[in-house]
Amino acid sequence: MKRAAVTGATSMIGAALIRECVKQNIEVLAIVRKNSVRRKRLPDCALVRIIECELDELDTITGQGEPCDVFYHLAWEATAKGQRDDPVLQERNIKTTLDAVNLAKRLGCRKFVGAGSQAEYGRNRHVIAPDTPVFPCTAYGMAKYAAGRLSEALCQKYGIIHIWGRIFSVYGRYDNAGTMLDYAIGQLMQKEPAYFSPATQMWDYLHETDAGRIFYLLGEKAENSAVYCVASGEARPLKEYIFQLAENFGPEAECIFASETDPGEIFGLQADTQALRRDLGFVPEIPFQEGIADMIAYQRQKQKEVQDRG
Hints:
The chain is 37% helix and 18% strand. It is an alpha/beta fold. The strands form 4 sheets. A 7-stranded parallel β-sheet has the order 3-2-1-4-5-6-11, sandwiched between helices. A two-stranded parallel ribbon has the order 7-10. A two-stranded parallel ribbon has the order 8-13.
């Protein structure tokens, strides 16, 4: 791979992917929304060329110029909690994904790598593998699954390799507001107690840098159309992660857990990542202790900047 195009370039995983591409001396066409305040997340170097374009305008980008090898489609709208179960909002992402495949063809790409989701599998108490039967329970999960299958069909028509990476729990300094980790860090930074469920379920956290590396490797090494689970493959009880996070705030950090509920209602998130190791040689490099410390340091720096401006 010498040249790649990326939608969702300023997202948590998109920025990490582009940093990895630059590290590997890969040229990147970063497709960014107009006037995006997140452009500062992208490396400022000659290898990164920014194209301003809204997602409903992908058909305005021509295929003129040097062709790309891989197209990464990471963009997805309506991801906020109140929007994820809106069928109308989610349906638009299916068309955007097909528009992205058409753009990949115009750019001469031989491979299309899309961002799926563990939500495609629905609720599952067992370890999830790429071929685990899907049963999405939300409009978000349904749209992801539809986008994956339809983009695969279109890629097959065009003779493009189709890779679908179903993302599990990725975290890092660019984590979305309102996630469990973001909430916990915010509470403990304010020296307030953080409240949680019993947190006994098994969970798999993957740092954004490792997630970006997985997507880079999918574009670089995966040679056949396939589905992959984008996760660390190292699940632990969720409560262990919370305790490890709290250690960064000293003994005064207060974490309060709800009483145990009916075990039948608890669903964890565990992934089988054997395919990542077999096909890509991937093993996670960022341990949770290191990744969460960086996330906390970043949140503290942002808080300081706000206070300094005030």
